[in-house]
Write a structure and sequence with these properties.
The complex is a heterodimer of chains A (233) and B (299).
Chain A (H helix, E strand, L loop, with lengths): L1 E4 L5 H16 L7 E5 L16 E5 L14 E5 L14 E4 L15 E4 L12 E7 L13 E6 L15 E4 L10 E4 L3 H13 L11 E5 L15
Parallel strand pairs in A: 1-2, 2-3, 3-4, 4-5, 5-6, 6-7, 7-8, 8-9
Antiparallel strand pairs in A: 9-11, 10-11
Chain B lengths: L2 E7 L8 H11 L7 E7 L7 E7 L3 H15 L5 E5 L2 E7 L3 H11 L4 E6 L2 E7 L2 H7 L9 E7 L14 E4 L2 E9 L2 H10 L9 H14 L4 H11 L2 E8 L3 E6 L8 E4 L3 E5 L15 E3 L7 E4 L1
Antiparallel strand pairs in B: 1-8, 1-14, 2-7, 2-8, 3-5, 3-6, 4-5, 9-10, 10-11, 11-12, 12-16, 13-14, 13-15
Helix pairs in contact in B: 5-6, 6-7
The chains are: A alpha/beta (233), B alpha+beta (299).
């Protein structure tokens, strides 16, 4: 296992080392797959651009864009994260023990982001195929213009959930303060219950049932704009 | 972008380190704004019934000695003048303040008044935050609370006057991360009510708006609720008064804001990393203020 102390070495050295070891793995060479990062002290861009199955444990809270563009990495933040955690994630996983700030999981294409605390506004904005599971609440405008993927919220959702949403699927167990433009509650069918069960299991959440959730998604009147629907928004 | 920091001490133990903590917090935010920086410090070691005026001069070595001379010759009461670089803090009994301000208005028009109040002192200049803090010896200052700002200018030019904090009322300060879109309209409106402006800065308009409504008799809470209705744009505001400190985000809340509270202090930073050096931060309650919600702490 490699231990990296961000108080002693630079962020650039850290990310370069992670990239280097991911490259070694891809080349079939020996590499360090287990990483422990200490003293992040709210630093930005920790473990961005990871491109290989590295296991990275970050001990402490980080700043913006932690795990951005993650591909195949398994990142665990033992603390809270600033805005944009897992932005543009391609695959792999990110787990946050604490809270997440704004636009967590923005524009992700794959992989899973689990937030054990609360997430702030715009969680899952512009989702392109990522799975996001939040144990707590999400803030306003979550899943804004979300195209694909899922957002699972065990707590409550703030104002304007799923505003201008495309085909991403939203499951909320708690209250939704208000729905955004063209976002409506939808029927929970067997396939949705099964999908949700799978997501919860992958996220390691065993104390809730899929049937406790409500499903929300696109009414499909906005992105299939028809002048007759102009007064719908 | 702009970076904001703020520290409100609940107890007296940390007062002697207020400046040191604020400087460190502010310098951490340098990446958010390299243009200019400013700090407002609310001191505690001043006599009652005194008024402080913080003045700034573009030619301090020339003008401040002249000011000292003029004050000695015109006033028999003691008026303390503390010159630090381009700023000078005048301290006097409230009773003679009008006469002193008259003198400034008549004979020292080139001086800019940064702040006016019982306890506040504002220091702001063009330059990097670390330079600004060092020039004014911020690290040695003590006080009960203070706010700081590093600027990345967007709506108006990079000048000393354009730097934050803005003070448009006694002991009142405002710093702002964001930009207002209807500030020209609001400025015209406030001018019609007799409010005077020194700059083209959008933040000055927000500060003047709050001061104007406070002067009209509204509570700070109501003035801020009014701001939510009347101000158009995006903002995280941190404002301070002689006794208090508060935060307000616009309803969309794109601009960042992080609060941390312990038994000893309430701290604000645009980013969490501004707070990491504060004592007890590991056990502090750390949260992001909700949009369109007034948060306020008072001594």
């Amino acid at each position: 296992m490699s231990v990296f102390d961000l108080q002693k070495q630079s962020l650039r050295e850290l990310n370069a080392a992670l990239h280097q070891h991911a490259a070694l793995l891809r080349a079939g060479a020996h590499a360090d797959t287990d990483w422990e990062i200490t003293n992040p002290r709210g630093s930005h861009a920790v473990a961005v651009g990871v491109d290989g199955p590295l296991k990275i444990n970050i001990q402490g809270s980080v700043g913006y864009y932690c795990g951005g563009m993650n591909q195949s990495g398994q990142i665990h933040v033992h603390g809270s994260v600033g805005p944009g955690v897992g932005e543009n994630m391609m695959s792999g996983s990110i787990r946050v023990t604490g809270d997440a700030s704004q636009y967590a999981g923005a524009t992700g294409r794959g992989g899973m982001l689990v937030i054990e605390g609360n997430a702030s506004s715009r969680c899952g904005i512009s989702n392109k195929g990522m799975d996001i599971v939040v144990r707590g609440n999400v803030g306003h405008m979550s899943a804004f213009m979300a195209q694909r993927g899922t957002l699972v919220v065990l707590g409550d959702a703030g104002d304007a959930l799923g505003d201008s949403i495309y085909e991403a699927r939203l499951f909320v167990r708690g209250d939704v303060k208000s729905l955004g433009a063209d976002c409506v509650q939808k029927e929970m069918r067997t396939e949705h219950l099964e999908l949700l069960a799978e997501l919860l299991e992958t996220a390691g959440i065993l104390d809730v049932q899929p049937a406790e959730f409500n499903r929300y998604g696109s009414a499909r009147k906005l992105y299939h704009f028809d002048i007759d629907h102009a007064d719908a928004y | 972008m702009c970076g904001i920091v703020g520290l409100f001490l609940k107890k007296t133990e940390m007062q002697s380190c207020l400046g040191m903590h604020l400087e460190r917090m502010l310098v951490t935010m340098s990446d958010r704004g390299p243009d200019s920086a400013g700090l407002a410090i609310y001191g505690v070691d001043h006599p009652q019934h005194h008024l402080k005026l913080t003045l700034q001069s573009a030619a301090p070595t020339e003008v401040f000695p002249k000011l000292e001379q003029a004050i000695i010759s015109k006033f028999s009461q003691p008026i303390n003048i503390n010159v630090i670089e381009t700023h000078a803090v005048l301290q006097m009994d409230q009773a003679i303040a009008p006469a002193v301000e008259e003198l400034l208005a008549q004979e020292f028009r080139g001086l800019r008044m940064m702040s006016r109040g019982e306890s506040v002192e504002i220091y702001k200049e063009v330059g990097a935050p670390s330079d600004v803090a060092r020039r004014f010896g911020i690290a040695e200052m003590s006080g009960s609370h203070g706010i700081g700002h590093t600027r990345m200018a967007t709506e108006s030019a990079v000048t000393t006057r354009g730097a934050h904090p803005f003070s448009t009322g006694p002991d009142q300060c405002l710093v702002h991360n964001g930009s207002l879109s209807n500030h020209n309209n609001l400025r015209r409106d406030l001018k019609r009510h007799g409010v005077h402006f020194e700059t083209e800065n959008d933040t000055e308009v927000a500060a003047a708006y709050l001061s104007h409504h406070l002067a009209s008799g509204l509570t700070l809470g109501d003035a801020l609720e009014g701001a939510l209705m009347d101000l158009d744009g995006f903002y995280t505001f941190v404002f301070s008064t002689r006794t208090g400190f508060g935060v307000l985000r616009d309803p969309i809340a794109c601009k960042p804001a992080v609060l941390a509270e312990t038994d000893d202090y309430v701290a604000f930073g645009s980013e969490y990393r501004a707070l990491v050096s504060l004592p007890g931060i590991e056990h502090a309650t750390v949260w992001e203020p909700e949009p369109a919600t007034v948060y306020f702490w008072e001594h």
